[in-house]
Structures are given as structure tokens and as C-alpha cells.
UniProtKB/TrEMBL annotation:
Belongs to the UPF0126 family. It is found in: Cell membrane. Its main location: membrane. Keywords: Cell membrane, Membrane, Transmembrane, Transmembrane helix. The chain crosses the membrane at residues 6-26, 33-54, 66-82, 89-107, 119-140, 152-170, 176-199. The keyword Glycoprotein does not apply. Residues 9-83, 95-170 form the Glycine transporter domain. It is a multi-pass membrane protein. This is UPF0126 membrane protein.
Length: 209
């Protein structure tokens, strides 16, 4: 499997898991079937569309490849009919979200590097790809984005570290398909470990008087 094919497959898997997390949140928020589909599609495609607009890839990949629209629709349909079974997993939304975070961090960073961006810019776009859909999901669900809550566990930090690893490996010529998959697993595992251990980013520093 070529690196381009591996990245494409990873991105399609990311579409499914992010869409499922969006559909689950829509169901928990009491949305109807239209809202479920919209939230699933937005969660899956939002970050990637932002990335493609920034790097000048027009029209965005989401509107060129039918699979980009079809896979989130399938994920929304599966979740619509089987959400009681999925919800019984308890941490299903968090697991799916962590999986999408890892996969999108890798694919977003690689696509930015392929477009000729520098390492810093690619890292920023990799993180934007990973967290953008989740932020849009929370806004549409009328919730404060999880990304900005100091009481929530690390979210953007695992993505940032993963994007740096991918950028360094890419520039060094070490980013083989297995390494890309490993980086995605690292980011997802870091996010889940942060949830388990309660790791949080610090808030504003307060001066004691």
C-alpha cells in the first residue's frame, strides 16, 4: 500500500468515527433525524474543509469525493438505529472522538506538508483538521466547545504533539504507512489516557495577594 493510499484510508476511517461521535451527541441533545445527519456531517468534514480552504485546495476534498459525504451519512444511519447499543458502552462518544482526533491529526498534517507548507504551519493545520469538526459540533449542539474548558482533560495537546511527530517524521523521510498509523494510535491513546488520569491544561495564572 502506497503512503497516499494509506493516508486516504486513514482519513475515511476518521470520517466514520468522527461522524459517529457527532451523531451520538445529536441524539443525546434530542435532535431529530435532520439534526443528526447535519451534526454527523459537520463533525466529520468541518476540520478538513477548513484545512482545504486555507491551503487553497478548491473545491475541498469533501465536495470532490462522494465517499467523503457518504461515509458520514452511513455512520449517522448506523447510530440512528443502534444508538441504544452504542450508548451502553458508556464512553462511546469519547472513544470515537479520540479515534477521530488521532486519525485527523495525521492526515491533516500530511496534507499540509504535501501542499508545501513548513513544519510549523503544517502542525497548526493538522491540529485545526483534528479539532475543527469537534468545535463546530459543540457549537451546533449549543454547548461550550470541549476544547476551551479548563475543567476538561487534554484535547488539543495530544493532537499538537502528534502533529509535531508526524511533521518531523515526514521531513526526515520516515513517515511510512505503519508510522502514520502509529502516530494516530499515539494521539488517540494519549487522549484516552488523559481522560483516565484526569490530565488538564492549566488555566490563567492568578496572582496571590
Amino acid at each position: 500500500m502506497s503512503p497516499d493510499t494509506a493516508i486516504y484510508v486513514l482519513e475515511l476511517i476518521g470520517l466514520f468515527v468522527f461522524a459517529m461521535s457527532g451523531a451520538l451527541m445529536a441524539i443525546r441533545s434530542g435532535f431529530d433525524v435532520v439534526g443528526i445527519v447535519v451534526l454527523a456531517e459537520t463533525t466529520a468534514l468541518g476540520g478538513g474543509v477548513l484545512r482545504d480552504v486555507i491551503i487553497g485546495d478548491h473545491p475541498p476534498a469533501a465536495f470532490r469525493d462522494p465517499l467523503y459525504l457518504t461515509i458520514p451519512l452511513v455512520a449517522a444511519t448506523v447510530t440512528f438505529f443502534f444508538h441504544p447499543q452504542v450508548a451502553r458502552l458508556g464512553i462511546a462518544v469519547l472513544i470515537f472522538d479520540a479515534g477521530g482526533l488521532g486519525l485527523y491529526t495525521v492526515t491533516g498534517t500530511v496534507k499540509a506538508l504535501d501542499a508545501g507548507l513548513g513544519m510549523l504551519q503544517a502542525v497548526i493545520l493538522g491540529v485545526t483538521t483534528a479539532v475543527g469538526g469537534g468545535v463546530l459540533r459543540d457549537v451546533l449542539a449549543r454547548q461550550t466547545p470541549e476544547l476551551f474548558k479548563t475543567e476538561n482533560e487534554l484535547y488539543a495537546v495530544p493532537s499538537t504533539i502528534g502533529a509535531i511527530i508526524v511533521a518531523v517524521a515526514y521531513q526526515s523521510g520516515w513517515l511510512l504507512p505503519a508510522a502514520a498509523a502509529g502516530a494516530a494510535v499515539f494521539v488517540s491513546g494519549f487522549r484516552l489516557l488523559a481522560l483516565w488520569r484526569g490530565w488538564r491544561a492549566p488555566g490563567a495564572w492568578a496572582v496571590r495577594r
